[in-house]
Fold these 2 entries.
Entry 1:
Amino acid sequence: MIPIRYNLRSLAVRRTTTVATATGVALVVFVLASALMLSAGIKKTLSISAQEDVAIVLRKGSDAELGSVLDTGSVNTILGAPGVKKDETGKPVGTPEIVVVGAMEKIGAEGLSNVTIRGITPESLRLRPRVHIVEGRPAKPGSDEVLVGSRIKGRFKGTGLGQAFDLRKNRPVTVVGIFEDEGSSYESEVWVDLDTLRAAYGREGSVSSVRVRLESTAAFDLFKGAMEGEKRYGYLALRDGEYLEKQSQGTSLFIGMMGTLISVFFAMGAMIGATITMYAAVANRQREIGTLRALGFSRTNILVSFLLEAVVLAFAGGLVGALASLGMGFVHFSMMNFTSWSEIVFGFDPTPKIVGTSLGLAIVMGLIGGFFPAIRAARVSPVAAMRG
Amino acid sequence: VTLAGLAVRNVLRNKFRAMLTVLGVAVATLTFIMLRTLVASWAEAADFAVKDRLVTRHKITFVMTLPRKYADTVRSAPHVKVATFLNWFGGKDPKHDKEFFANMAADSDTLFKVYDDMAVKPAELDAWMHDPEGAIVGDVLATKMGWKVGDKVSLESGIYPSRTEWEFHVSGIYEAKARSVDRSSFYFHWKYLNDSLPPERKDQVGWIVSRVDNPNDTATIGTQIDKIFDEKDIQTLSQDEHAFTAGFMAGVSAVMTAVNIISVVILVIMALVLGNTIAMGVRERTNEYGVLKALGFTNRQIVWFIMSESMVIAMAGAALGLAIGYPFIEQGMGRYLEENMGSFFPYFRVPPSVAATALGLAIPLGLLASAIPAMQASRLKVVDALRRVA
């Protein structure tokens, strides 16, 4: 085999061309990796809070808590269903919640943005053990005190600790605590006492959803069966994870698809660039190739060597692109989720798989871009080439 | 032979490389057009919004409703010509529960007076008015779901669960007379909904849409309407349709900014590919430039010589990209997006301005890409150039 040092040195000699081609590949890899990371970030933000043994009940026909209406009478039916875990005192573990969307003034931007407001009970916090207060204190049940998720704290008017905003006209609530939940979408919500929210939004007599803790993960089928048996009301029972994944589907699919489509076109452009570069390399090195053949290297050796050179070139670019995209891990931005119609703060989530995929793309680009030039190189006749 | 003529000949000297480069530029142009069309089409909904249409909704949140009598108050407000009201129904066809489409209960008497940019055949409209369970659906939605006039459709709604399934008949199909109209919506009689609701949920409307007599004054008229309700139980927020849509779209503005940035990145890649080709050509032809200089051509002429070669390739590539891009976007991608994401992209076509920008950019990009090799060649000393071996 022809030593790889030969290829590395050849690349170094044609510095400008090498850099131009590698930069093209780097940009492609950067764009693809960023899009995939954002798509993964959206999925993670919306599903990280999922718990294996938690189920949610909505009104059949609705996709999200926002569009679901259950009458208060249903709450006890759902909590009393088989498969629901009971605590030490024999009380079922679960809670009704109300989810609405409120228009709030975004600081530093014109106009109003939608924020998800969740009506909670003390049980809601017990059901989500990972939620913890990072500033201030828990809200008193039944009061006008609210908790604000850490990601929107201070981003909307009146959402800083100790500040107040109107839930509706003349219905002020005070922020007493800021909570975190490992970066989940709950961190982009405002949590209000269920009854306070109900009064303010005129939702007497109904809730959006009921979440319950199951006796075990396996108890879900039993619970679901019981819920769907209640034909008169039409309930939809989902595992928490399944529900949360549904919430991210539209948005993350949209970003993922758009990113992939753009990357495909980008890759085509960069691949053409690589092909041009490699063809030129082959044309300029006719004599060298002839010499190599005369020294006894086979056609296959030449083919492999030039393919390898193209791959090294693309991989170097890919590495730069992938490294740069890791920097996106520090970027957060606010975007509307298509399912909840409200803004959620998302981040880019760099996973090893994404880095691997994008480096893989770089290698494929090198292989395809270098293929035809490498064949041409392998076809060079030693005698003709050395004669010049 | 002029210098420009020589430049064109030079392009064809390495036909294969020139072809590949043109192809590369074409792909980049195609991508650029695609991305720009995406952004333009997204903004289209707001740009083509009817300026004299005013949307009045609950001040705090769109999930809460307004009392039905608010609509009458709006109708009697100064400068309001006609007003209709709608409720978001949030229904899904249980047989196609993955398909999302907007479905709304609307005040039948006024809906098409306010939305006169939706066209329904008079016979179908008449049939609708006489069928309490009738519905008018968009042409794109009808095609997608396979609905024809006279078909029965049942929907289930999580917001209005008082019936497990609501039955409708397709009375007519509307077509769009303006680009901002979503052709995938489903409208039915507000009365049908209201009559089926329990007493505590009766007589509520989601939002009120009115036409005003002075399109330049829509915002002020909106403020005046809001003032009427200011002392009432429920306050309102009135915005002209443009502001309403723009506010909704602000939610994804970050993505659109990203797309805009990416569309510039593809131009950078294009310049790299083009610049690379030119640089290679210049390196291989160093001798010739020496000869030209020895013959008395000035440095400036050499620069133009190389730059025009680059521009010829760039323009050929841009033209090819446009030729491929137009049918690709209009027939393939655009049709798909209009059918499946009509609420976001009601009109996905290449705007002439985008096509013109793509073509126009070929010239400066060709100049930019060849700047470095052209400068290098012009600075060469005749002796060095003649001596140098590529």
Entry 2:
Amino acid sequence: MELPAAASLAPDTPPAQADGRPFADDPDWALVARIGRRDQAALALLYRRHYDRLCRFVYRVTNDASGVDDIVNATMLVVWDKAPATTPQSRVTTWILGIAYRKALKAAERSRRTEHDPLDEMDDAIAADDSDLRRFEADEVAAAALRRLPPEQRAVMELVYHDQMAYQDIATLLGCPENTVKTRIFHARRKLRALWRELTGAAATAPA
Amino acid sequence: MPESTDAHDTVQLLLPWFANGSLDDTERTRVAAHLEACAACRRQLEDERRVAAAVRESALPGRSPEPALAGLMATIAAREPAAAKAAAPSPTFWSRWFARPSAAPWPMALAGAGALALVASVGSLAFRAQAPNAYHVLSLTPASKAVDANDIHLVMAPSVDPARRDAILAIVDGRIVDGPNSVGAYTVRIAASGGPVDLTGALDRLRGQPDVLLAEAATPLAMPHLGPDLAP
């Protein structure tokens, strides 16, 4: 029996990353501890470090660039409020993105109920005139297809393909079972293929 | 031996994480072994790389976090005034006093300045209350028609009532010739009963009163203790 493998599978190990290191090793937790002591400089540091990733993720979920900063700030305000009582149960990124996910999802649901999606212009152009299709690069079609996925699926796409997160971390972030994460992206991929065919016309070849 | 459908399905669900490199050793090995045998999964893995590229490329343009960060910090400062005050330089007695509601708008730059600047400012404000142009006269000449060499600028605590005010004035045999101005400063003239006025002694007596916040000579030449460089 290989000892390292056995150790990593022991049931009593503290919350740890896939490689077995405890989450507390994430240096960002030291920043969160300082934030818990009301250190605003530490908050600014954490904010700058995570801003790009948070903006991308929130935008992916909401499809609304104008509301991104508001959601990012609401997220970091929760970080500020909860820092004194938070212990390392995941990486800091996972914790923060989880807060952002719930806030972004609420915003996406609000706009889904109240507004026509204004970001479908290119989709409409594609649908209106197939002969114009060659004007659009493949990645633009892919982007249009991505935008048409439900926000829950877009979130998982971003976390897997941009943030390269493990499914265990995504499950923690979303607060759902690991199997749900796996099937959600499976369905997202299937839907993406269907959208691609829809956007490029049945005759065109899917990117597979 | 052909793999079971279950094994194929399991691996298929893991392919996104095989592609992004986050599987642990056990699962990675298992997926890699299946890929050797399964052409469908190999095609899907290729597809994974295309989707990953599409997701990475379609995104918000990068921008500076600073404007949004400033907004967050303002939100926190507004929610937690006590914490914000603790972080700021501790307010001086004078900034507190001038911030009281009854005081008229006061240039905030002066709020943290030393008493010396305040003496000059109270003087100029007291004087401006009666003659807008006289500020320049005050700063250039020892005395003018409006301000006597025996004049004092006096600021009393807001709690001082008229009776107490008269009692304070009586200590130095003074009478009010102007004020109060917008910051509550009076110009008090010390009676010259016979000989020269002991202005320094009068100021000392006034400063000895607990409810006298400020007592200074109104004219620069009457403040020898400040020295030539410091006189306004």
